[in-house]
Design goal:
It is built from 20 helices and 14 strands. The chain is α/β, with parallel strands linked by helices. The chain has two domains: 212 residues, Periplasmic binding protein-like II (D-Maltodextrin-Binding Protein, domain 2); 212 residues, Periplasmic binding protein-like II (D-Maltodextrin-Binding Protein, domain 2, 3-Layer(aba) Sandwich). Strands 1, 2, 3, 4, 7, 13 and 14 form a seven-stranded mixed sheet that branches. Strands 10-9-11-8-12 form a five-stranded mixed sheet, with helices on both faces.
Length: 451
């Protein structure tokens, strides 16, 4: 285990220990066998509405009084480390304390499945038959039944209309717009080590524009970054506060801010042909002593009753009780039956030109993107900003070409990504990439300063 991993493990435990406990106290044990324990990055509004919906569904379909005890956590990275620690404790003889993993994006659930953290669970055939296998080439559920997409999320650019207008900056329509000099120090980004949605956005840039042009775009956006957060939800809140004017988020977080502050202040662009819809899954933790309850929860989430909660207005028949949840359901029949009454009018199955996204490619190089972000932006932040300031005086000159150069070719990147599984090799590569970017930035600074 390298230094960063050790520190992140400690941070994960601290974050979970400090997570708000009000929701856990409110949802008390009321059924034989205890309550279902679900770990999730979803906020309290989602947790409250799903708890109420599941209780009703369990009574109606199983004749049982069941409820949920939530283990909230900030960021997918924290959740994965918590589950890994949970599995290590269970291997020592302790009962598994988490039953279900909900949310966090498909790559995290795929990783959990491959690592043996989660298990295959068969659900009712009539429920699964209502969910298409793919959307735009992206799988909506795992063929081995280890995870099931519950909602569909897209990724876009949230922006503060007032902040842009005050600076005479046009509203961004493409990922590339965030790389423009006008956005210098005005972009907020999330750490891909902690945020699966951030990592997905960065991968989409690379896939849409190709490795060389994509890296140039990505690095220039990094250079425009004024702050780095732990999660996509933090980005949405920072944009609403006016601390930054643009950032990359899951669509849901932007819809919440638009609902709260109004469309005159907050906007969202889903870059046409540059983004895609991906599933946000649920999976069942291996060794759970509450397997039947966990299966019932998965079936609830994919049932019509569960799906309607995600996009019907609060207080409407069949919808959430108090809060709009702003998520796209994963079942096409739900749009056909209730789409006209939904808070979200778009139908991802019929009305959006998406990026032809390569899932396998995204999963293979997810960790390498995270480490490149760390070494290029976080560890060398001062030099990055200074080099970028020099490039801005001549954005198409020789120094700019040096600045934009990828650290290695795409094929080499896939080879190196496999080496990151070895913690010792990962430490060596991190040190090498840190040195590479430091040297490059110093050369750009020397070139642009006339030295």
């Amino acid at each position: 285990m390298n230094r960063r991993q050790a520190l992140k493990n400690l941070a994960a435990l601290a974050a979970l220990a400090a997570a708000p406990s009000g929701c856990r106290k409110r949802h008390t044990i009321r059924g034989a066998g205890g309550d279902l324990v679900v770990i999730s990055p979803h906020d309290e509004t989602v947790r409250l509405e799903l708890t109420r919906g599941f209780e009703t569904y369990a009574r109606k379909t199983a004749g049982r009084e069941l409820t949920i005890r939530w283990q909230p956590a900030r960021g997918t990275g924290n959740i994965m480390r918590f589950l890994e620690n949970e599995m290590a404790s269970a291997a020592g003889g302790r009962e598994v304390g988490i039953d279900v993993f909900l949310g966090g994006g498909a790559p995290a659930h795929e990783k959990a499945a491959r690592s043996g953290i989660t298990q295959a669970v068969e659900i009712r055939p009539d429920i699964l038959a209502a969910v298409p296998e793919t959307l735009g080439g992206v799988h909506l559920w795992d063929a081995s039944r280890r995870w099931y997409g519950v909602t569909i999320s897209s990724f876009g650019i949230i922006f503060n209309r007032i902040g842009l207008k005050n600076r005479a900056i046009p509203e961004p329509l493409s990922w590339k717009d965030l790389a423009a000099p006008a956005f210098n120090n005005l972009v907020v980004m999330a750490d891909p080590f902690e945020s699966g949605s951030a990592r997905a956005c960065y991968e989409m840039i690379l896939q849409r524009f190709g490795w060389r042009e994509g890296w140039k775009t990505f690095l220039r956006i990094l250079a425009n970054t004024g702050s780095v957060t732990h999660s996509s939800s933090d980005i949405a809140r920072e944009i609403s506060s006016g601390q930054s004017v643009a950032g990359m988020v899951i669509d849901t977080y932007a819809y919440v801010q638009i609902d709260t502050h109004g469309p005159a202040m907050i906007g969202l662009t889903l870059p046409e042909g540059e983004t895609t819809f991906t599933p946000d899954p649920v999976s069942v933790v291996r060794g759970t002593p509450r397997l039947d309850q966990a299966r019932l929860f998965v079936e609830f989430l994919l049932s019509r009753d569960g799906q309607k909660l995600w996009f019907l207005p609060a207080g409407s028949p069949g919808g959430p009780e108090r809060y709009n949840l702003w998520h796209f359901p994963v079942r096409p029949d739900v749009y056909e039956a209730w789409g006209s009454r939904a808070t979200l009018k778009q139908n991802p199955f019929t009305s959006f030109a998406t990026l032809a996204y390569d899932e396998e490619k995204g999963m293979e190089r997810g960790r390498i993107i995270s480490l490149l972000f760390e070494t290029a932006c976080v560890q060398n932040r001062r030099l990055l900003k200074k080099a970028w300031a020099g490039v801005l005086h001549d954005p198409t000159g020789a120094a700019a070409a040096l600045f934009d150069e990828p650290p290695f070719g795409e094929a080499e990147g896939f080879r190196l990504a496999k080496e990151l599984d070895d913690p010792i090799r990962s430490e060596v590569l991190e040190e090498a990439w840190y040195g590479h970017f430091k040297k490059k930035y110093l050369e750009v600074i020397h070139e642009t300063s006339g030295g």
